[in-house]
Design brief:
Blueprint (H helix, E strand, L loop, with lengths): L1 H16 L8 H16 L7 H16 L5 E6 L2 H4 L9 E2 L6 E10 L1 H6 L5 E8 L10 E7 L13 H11 L8 E5 L5 H10 L2 E5 L3 H9 L1 H4 L3 E7 H14 L2 E6 L6 H7 L7 E2 H4 L6 E6 L10 E4 L2 E10 L4 E10 H21 L1
Parallel strand pairs: 1-3, 6-7, 6-8
Antiparallel strand pairs: 1-2, 3-4, 4-11, 5-8, 5-9, 9-10, 11-13, 12-13, 13-14
Helix pairs in contact: 2-3, 8-10
């Protein structure tokens, strides 16, 4: 009787939570980000932003369709950037369980790659179906910290008060903290407040997914806080990584006049504070990123001659809290041959059906 009751309880829990994901999909996703990074890296410094983006998107779409999952793209870049994209609602994966939400940014920092500047990465995140926050509003205000200060941040409070609490949680002074901020005119007042409080500032041109991860990994990167307004798609992607790390994050929509009707049509309010669980719910979140250009988070793609190249990737899963750095050397001639064979087989199946 007791065993029967326990079995029934487990069945009820499974029905409520959906089918659990019992394998580390992030280890499969890293092949997706590696391929996108290698494709985009060919355009490093060539000032061909659209071609770099298209190469990364094409590679990512092709690779995602061989991952053992039933995925729906919930977060994509194309709407904001008018770039080639993995469009929202697109089905990816081979159609087998589990059903997952997919967030993609084939190049976080497209201008960085096009100009040959540091910090461009390719990134993908997955979570259980229906767990990711979705909006067509393009921008969000964000506040991201590492695990030690995860419980002390309040995006509605002043910059100085937040920095004081973060410093205290990390057993440091405000003067010891480094805050990463996108270099935008809209941040002039924010920068004044940070500097007045006494913290150091690191300005970045682009790449606020990578910057958010750096802020959540302060002991590795030397970045303690991310503050300011960036992309809403990047906010959800960053949230996936921050949840895997165990950091803290809050966000809220940042509306231009042109965005207010859109937010109202979605039933969303600018004042609503979004925590990590609002941005990505559940505890089965997977995140993978590969460096395209050398940066503080990851090394970029290095072409070694003799049809070989080297990549460095970051792979994380929230369920286990494990973070892996993966160094890989790729034989490009073999990869091209295997890709062509797989695509021919895939195409033959489609025709037969």
């Amino acid at each position: 009787m007791i065993r029967a009751a326990m079995a029934a309880s487990r069945e009820n829990q499974s029905a409520e939570l959906g089918t659990p994901i019992d394998r580390n999909l992030a280890l499969e996703l890293v092949r997706v980000t590696e391929g996108a990074a290698m494709a985009a890296a060919r355009y490093m410094g060539r000032n061909q932003k659209e071609l770099a983006d298209k190469a990364a998107v094409d590679s990512m779409r092709r690779s995602l369709n061989f991952v053992d999952m039933d995925g729906i793209v919930v977060i994509g870049e194309g709407e904001k950037d008018e770039a080639p994209m993995l469009f929202i609602g697109e089905r990816v994966g081979n159609g087998n369980p589990p059903g997952v939400d997919v967030a993609v940014d084939p190049i976080d920092g497209t201008r960085l790659v096009a100009r040959g500047l540091p910090g461009g990465i390719a990134t993908v995140a997955l979570a259980e179906r229906g767990s990711m926050y979705h909006t067509h509003v393009p921008y969000m205000e964000k506040l991201i910290v590492g695990p030690e200060a995860a419980d002390v941040i309040d995006i509605t409070d002043s910059v100085a008060a937040n920095l004081q609490r973060i410093a205290q949680a990390e057993d440091r002074t405000v003067e010891d903290l480094t805050v990463v901020v996108l270099d935008r005119e809209r941040h002039e007042l924010l920068l004044e407040e940070i500097r007045r409080a006494g913290a150091r500032v690191k300005l970045i041109m682009d790449g606020d997914v990578a910057a958010g991860l750096m802020a959540a990994m302060e002991h590795r990167t030397g970045i303690d806080v991310l503050m300011g307004v960036g992309g809403a798609p990047e906010a959800v992607l960053a949230a996936c990584g921050v949840k895997c790390i165990g950091g803290g994050m809050q966000a809220r929509l940042w509306l231009r006049d042109a965005d207010r009707a859109l937010a109202e049509s979605e039933g969303k309010r600018e004042s609503e504070v979004l925590g990590l669980d609002d941005l990505v719910a559940g505890d089965n979140v997977f995140f993978a990123a590969t460096g395209i250009t050398d940066g503080e988070l990851l090394q970029g793609v290095r072409f070694l001659g003799d049809d070989r190249c080297h990549t460095q990737s970051l792979v994380m899963r929230s369920y286990s809290g494990t973070t892996r750095y993966i160094e890989a050397e790729h034989r490009l001639d073999k990869l091209r041959r295997r890709r062509d064979e797989a695509e021919r087989a895939f195409s033959g199946i489609d025709v037969a059906i």
